[in-house]
Amino acid sequence: RARRNTMEEKEEKLQQSRETGVHMSALDMIFQKRKEIMEHLMKYPELERAGCLVKRAVNVIIAKNEFTKSLAAFSIAWKETKEGSFSCTTYLDIDNPPGYTFGDRFSKFEILPNFAYISKQTLMKTYTYLSGKTPREKVWAMLEDLANHPPEEGWLIVIDSIENICDYNNFKKFREFFELCRDITNSGSTVLFLHHKNSKTEDISEGGLGYIFDTVDDMWEATLRRNGTGTITNIRLKNLKSRFIEAYKDFIVSVDTKQGTVSYDQSVLFKETIPTKNAIIEYLASHPKANQEVISQAVKSSIDPSFNGAFFRAFLQQLGGLHILKVEQD
Q1: How many C-alpha atoms does 73 have within 13 Å on its Cβ side?
Q2: How far apart, in whole angstroms, are the C-alpha atoms of residue 101 and residue 69?
Q3: Which of 62, 66, 118, 275 could link 195 by a cystine bridge, Cβ 3.0 to 4.6 Å?
């Protein structure tokens, strides 16, 4: 009651200030704008996932093996573009020679009309309208253009890799890069960049990697797995950081470079959540338009006891990211 009275008194004080023209303090001005601020915050879209990526966020994949992170990024970007998670994807590969990477590894994947794979050679020969005399300068020009003239529907921008964009010893440029990435995500697009981890013992809290860790929204470390004959079977992504509620175990990307296929068919959910997943799928089979509250009540007996409203919503988003179900925003 005391708090409510205080709020009412402050409202009266603000009204009197408007009527009398008496100067209001900065704190009073902040209070006056609180409703406008809250209304603005409520307009932000809810968390969405595209595979393991968080949409409208800055994501990073790190790996010691140079090809592992490129294969992981390309596979996820290609699949999510094919699934319709992004209206357009631009894969900026300024790290690898196109013959080695695209010709040898990616040529079997279906060519998608809204997926652009751009090598540094293509960048220099084709994108002559972009300012800059080097691939690095042209990528900066492209990113600035995306930030200043954002597309109507969100894109996915993949940067392979950050070492070719920023000098880790130039923290001013490093900060500018992340500010540019944030401008792009604030306008509705998604950023994924790759970082070459120097060694297994590289301290995540030091140097360039430490700054990346502190700044990005989601960080994954990729490990390539092969069978007994040396054929690539999958890539295991371990989550090192997330600003969001997590429900994934390690995220596994099954990829066949000879057939050009990608799937998330291996278990990436915690064992305890599997009964909840199965109950949700069974209920949605007969109630495809049900909302979160209705679903949670219907499968209440199967829900993990730790799932409150926020965790349950996050779990639905995880299932959406795996394309097990489609989560629509209200």
Answers
A1: 34
A2: 12
A3: 62
Q: In whole angstroms, how far apart are CA 58 and each of 69, 107, 150, 300, 323?
A: 16, 27, 16, 34, 21
Helix, strand, coil share of the chain (percent; to 5) = 45, 20, 35
Rounded Cα gap, residues 297 and 308, in angstroms: 12
Does the pTM surpass 0.85? The reply is no
Q: Which residues contact 280 (CB under 8 A, 6 or more apart)?
A: 295, 299, 316, 319, 325
Q: Which of 118, 127, 47, 126 lies closest to 88 in space, CA to CA?
A: 118
Q: Are 222 and 250 in contact (CB under 8 A)?
A: no
Residues 222, 250: Cα–Cα separation, whole Å: 10
CA-CA-CA-CA dihedral for 26, 32, 36, 38, to nearest 10: 80
Burial class (CB in 10 A: 0-12, 13-18, 19+), 317: buried
Q: Are 134 and 92 in contact (CB under 8 A)?
A: no
